[in-house]
Amino acid sequence: MYMMLVSQKFKKKYIALWLFSIMAVIFYMNSILEKDCPRNNEDQMQYPIEPNNQISLFSYNKNVPIIFVGGVPRSGTTLMRAMLDAHPNIHCGEETRIIPRILTMRNQWANSPKESERLQNAGITDEILDSAVGAFITEVVANHGKKSEKMCNKDPLVLRYTSYLKSIFPKSKFVFMVRDGRAVVHSIITRKVTITGFNLNSYEDCLSKWNFLIQLMYAQCISVGPENCLPVYYEQLVLHPEQNMKRILDFLGIEWNDAVLQHEKLIGKEISLSKNERSSDQVIKPVNLEALNSWVGKIPADVIARMDTIAPMLRQLGYDPNANPPNYGEPDQKIKDNTFHIKQNKDYWLALAKKYSVHVKDSVL
Asked: Which helix (H) or strand (E) holds 346?
């Protein structure tokens, strides 16, 4: 019995190390390809990985509480994590990009009968795999930024796997960012955000893909229950940040701190940003109304006319597919003031945006 336990522990450590090796090789090969075949930043986002000379394999503990922030990309996940990062007891940090990939790999193994059979025959059970994946995620979340009392991860697409994450981290909490799909798709297309399967030349295709992803994530959120997954509407977060951040921190079981309402003051200090992430030039600013209705008048008329058919999740989530522009509500006075200040100081914010993002051009703010 003792030898069996030792063997099981060895397999878990071995698989976790194996996962790290796989990801290291993937990113090493990507770096070689990028050196040999440079790409235009407008067409492809690149995410450099900083070397870490101190590698320590965390012991996987199912009871480690992790906050997962996600949603369809361009739904306000970066703003959400920046506001959470302003809290002295929370660290989310930049997108890791590798956690969604490892979850996708695990899902592929589970859905392939042949691969599952091979793993079982090799003595690699689901328990061992899940423990290894849990150790991998714990290691990445714990060590890819500053140490903090509350561990947090912001990789938008991880919420495709909410139920699975809940099974390997039972005490985890999920903040599910929801945004008007029309605004999401307009942002994806105009900012050239590459997402597998999205045709950036077609509003209809992107809206259809948004509908599929949001439906999947919404179902996953519902499946783990309201005590574990909290939908947060981007529009309401922007209009009423204090009211919504109090609700979010209460859901997470974290005491209130006013710093979450002034995240912009901590950018470059307590809050680090990746120059490659497409939202970095936006979250350097205080919460404002700039992005709420920027999509209005930009979507082709024939797509607008069939919106209910193309993206039925809009109506299910409470958005009016026929409202152009929609009425999201009246903002707090502070948010009106922030927006006015930003408009009056465009040159200042443009210069600052260039400092924090490689994607900003002189004509774009």
From this structure: helix 346-356
Helices (H), 122-255: 126-143, 162-168, 181-190, 203-224, 234-239, 241-252
- Gap between the Cα atoms of 325 and 86, Å rounded: 32
Task: Please tell me which residue in 95, 139, 235, 264 is annotated as part of the active site.
Answer: 95
DSSP states of 49-106 as a string? Answer: ----S----PPP-TT--EEEEE-STTSSHHHHHHHHHTSTTEE--S--SHHHHHHHHH
Based on the residue annotation, tell me whether 95 is a catalytic residue of this protein: yes
Helix, strand, coil tally for the chain in percent (to 5): 55, 5, 40
SS3 171: coil
Q: Which two tokens stand for residue 65?
A: 């509480």
How far apart, in whole angstroms, are the C-alpha atoms of residue 321 and residue 290? 21
Query: Residues 6 or more apart from 365 whose CB is under 8 A from it?
Result: 281, 346, 349, 350, 353
DSSP 331: P
Burial of 120 (0-12, 13-18, 19+ CB in 10 A): exposed
Q: How many residues are given for the chain?
A: 365
d(CA 234, CA 258): 19
pTM over 0.90: no
Rounded to the nearest 5°, which phi and psi values hold at 112?
A: -105, 105
What digits encode the pLDDT tens for the residues 3-46?
A: 444 455 545 555 555 555 555 434 433 443 333 333 333 333 23
The encoded tokens of residue 10 equal 């060895």
What lies within 8 Å, CB to CB, of 294 at 6+ separation is 183, 186, 187
Strand order in the sheet with 66-70: 90-91, 150-154, 66-70, 173-178, 229-233
